[in-house]
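WARN  no MSA supplied for this record, continuing single-sequence
INFO  ligand: manganese (II) ion
INFO  echoing inputs
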Amino acid sequence: MFSIIDGDGCSGILKFCQKSKIKEDRGECLMPQKQYMARKKKEKCCHVTASTSAKKRLERFWSVFTKEDDVLICINADPDALACALAIKRLLRYRVKSMVIAHPNEIRRLNNVAMVERLKIPLERLGNVKVRNFAKKILVDSQPTHLPVFERIEFDAIIDHHPLTGKYESTFVDIRPEYGACSTMLGEYLRAGNMKPSAALATALFYAIKVDTQDFSKHSVLADGICFRYLFNVANRNLVKKFELADLRRSELKYFNVALSELTYSKGRFYSHLGNVRSPDILVNIADFLNHVDKIDWVLVSGIHKGKLVVIFRCDGYRKSAGKLAARIFSELGSAGGHKEAARAEVPLDNLSLGDKEFTTSALKRMATRHMK
Ligand SMILES: [Mn+2]
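INFO  complex generated
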């Protein structure tokens, strides 16, 4: 069993860190110092060059498959997982008989739909494929413990960057939780195999790293930055912009009319209740839009979806906490919480004891004002 959990031996980037005298304790190291030192002692492998170690990893991955294999690549479809699946198709091209990418979840986010359509990513719903017809199964950007459907499948290879949540018996396991994006790991595999990604693949990987690291404002390692820079020249950045922008349906524009005519301003706060909405996603779009307005401290946008009042909170997160406010107002009535700058509450309408009355923007304002200074 080859297990590459948390970095196998001296990785290329680590070597890079040493070369450029970037101290590991500055957080750019690929594995905790203790583990790294332990491994260093055990394997005495600090002379492995950047390419050999990543190459070894790639060869071990390749050794799992034969030319007769029909391969199933399972993902929980989001940009990172989609990009990784494409990269695996590239890595295994000419090395296996066939490959199918399957996902259990519905792809609803328009940004993701745009990515799939414009890059023409061939996908199947996991429920529509016969898993046992595939000789080999790969799970990427996820772990079996993440979803019950994944738990039922015996994977031959797992490549992921989420925190390790189980002990997996797969032939090949490469889990590096410190990585900002799984696409960075796949980028390293491609480079190790001297495989220059096509514009489409590079665009997918580039977009994935942007999404998973939130434009490097979230946790990432030096490896993510290096991979990002490498892809920068090959990726189609206009296409990436297109994926990022596509988050509104034409049919949803009408909600902006409602939101603006309902808009109530008071003490640097915006309130707007939209009534029934087809999807709560539009409430997020509108709250984000209103949050662009200068000198506005708080934005509260609500709507009704499937018998629930959904409230979206936005603020700048500076000396404020949207999560805490959402909880103060709504936690006794339903579920509420979030981050400093963004939060959400969902309350069954029955809990609001409205009687015959409808929920309104002024009701939203009243409820919030009670809990705000
Ligand atoms: Mn990911």
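DSSP finds 14 helices and 13 strands in the chain.
INFO  checksum written, moving to next record
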